[in-house]
Amino acid sequence: MKFDFSRVFLGTGINYFTQDRPLQSVIRFIEFSDSGKLKEIGHYVGTELIEDSIFLDHFGKPYFQMWGIRDERLDGVWISRSHRMMIERLLDMDTARTAVPGKLLHHFISGYLVSDSGLFCTLTLTAQTVYALYKYGGELTKKFLTRYLDDNLWLGATYYTEIQGGSDLGANLTTAVAEGDRYILNGGNKYFASNAGLADGAIVTARIPGSPAGAKGISAFFVPTIKDDGSRNYEVRRLKEKLGTVLVPTGEVTLDHSEGYLLGDGLPGIYIALEILELSRIDDAIAAVGMARKALWEAYLYSKSRTAFGRSLIEHPLMKRDLIEMESEVEASMVLSIIAADLFNRASHLKPPYDTSYLVARAFTHMAKFMASWSSDFVTRYAMEVFGGRGFLHEFPVEKFHRDSIVTSLWEGTSNIQSLDFLELTEKRSLGQDLLTMANELIEKITADQREICKSAFETVQKRYQICLSYSNREYFAKEIISNFSYLFSIIYMALIGQRMNDSSLVSSAEIFYYRHFCQGFPPDFNFVYHSKILDWMDQGNR
Q: Each residue of 156-197: pLDDT tens digit?
């Protein structure tokens, strides 16, 4: 008898692109046109990928093979044929090939659809590498781009983090010494090296002797996995055992007389390294909310079919309220993340020194990653609760969404890093007032009914921000500052998009989100039954 995955996962068969109504409203708002491949990805995810990725997560994790049978050092990662075919199919759907300045939106939105943060990490790292080589590589790195275009499974990576520094790139000890037309890199331990053993090359941070201390002395290099003579260019020491993101191998890399190519042609290396990082921060946010979407959709379908105390779960008022609130969180994070992706895409042609449009895009990236990662952690955990004891069982898919979501607040800078970087932007770059001006201008485009809520949120954020600026110990309040701006722009864009795209459900979500984050709670006469309409579109997946 054939195993029927739909008996385990209710969302089987959903097209996560065409059937996601809030997503469609946002895509129309930013005027992005799908070539048909996002529709293809959405179908593939709902009919095959989720089932395959869960099976591999449980029973087919990557395996590190250090030695070959003839005593040669391999340092390769052995993945199943199913895993390899998943990557190949997604690459064929242009999830990474289009990651060049001005053409990033297809890649970003595909991350929302795939939203297996392990599997998509492999594609994110490849996209970052392609972006870096295309924008900042010189004549010497063109051959690697050509190889990528000619190879169906050319993969990239980024090796930034070292064991002694974590998110502090200024603490990097790896050195890079010029030797002819390339550099020789030596360093101890690149400690979180995802895609190690799969990647054909990586973007690596290192310090050129004589460079300034701290982050300003960091440069970015492309380091191929195999040298021109066919020998290995660096060593992979081991793979790590992780709570989630099983489908991307994460290892430790040692650089020992490794050949590298300087990126940026004299531009400040730390800015290039951080710009490349912006892609993965947006991917983190978008993948986080994509996982929250799937978990909540699954919980909603279950609440419609599961009976408790004589009626379906969703007919219980408190469950209905919970699902409404969770939906507003998912929609807010999705809207903010895709707006951040759109802003970055529009500014991605710029090089250091950047103008204000790039700094605004960077601010939105910090907000999106900060908010979406925590929202995903919250929503995916709550989805487990909807399933009761089943939600805690390894045999049902919802727990994997939660395990994979947790890392999104850690990768590419923790929530504290996002908060402090956002604070630095608002202060040293004087971007705080620019963001408030931007918010006010957007509010003026919103009609009267929703404008009052947006104005109220704006006045609250403006007041709180001015108070925080008066503090001498502002770092203690950095999370409050980024939270307030994130909530404000989420409400504004939900209301504006809902109005422009004639999506009344998105407008309702903005109102619910407002009461959750800017009021002491809902008023006693709040009509939860009426606002539950924001859930109705998910009935498409109910069978």
A: 999 999 998 888 898 899 999 999 999 999 987 899 999 999
- Bridge-based pairing of strands 250-262 and 218-224 is antiparallel
**Confidence (pLDDT) at 476:** 97
Residues 110 and 14 in one domain: yes
pLDDT at residue 5 tops 60: yes
- Of the three residues 268, 303, 323, the one that is the final residue of a domain is 268
The domain in which residue 182 lies consists of 158-268
CA torsion through residues 361, 362, 367, 368, sign: positive
Q: Tell me the Ramachandran region of residue 370: left when phi exceeds 0, alpha when psi lies from -120 to 50, beta otherwise.
A: alpha
> CA 43 to CA 324: how far, in whole Å?
26
Beta-sheet pairing, 182-194 with 175-179? antiparallel
Are 133 and 180 within one domain? no
pLDDT of residue 51: 97
Maximum C-alpha span of the chain: 78
Q: What does the pLDDT read at residue 541?
A: 58
- Residue 102 backbone class (left: φ over 0; alpha: ψ -120 to 50; beta: rest): left
How open is the CA angle 424-212-137, to the nearest 5 degrees? 85
- Determine contact, residues 148/73, Cβ cutoff 8 Å: no
If you search the block for the tokens 């609130």, which residue do you land on? 325
Domain finish residue from 268, 302, 327: 268
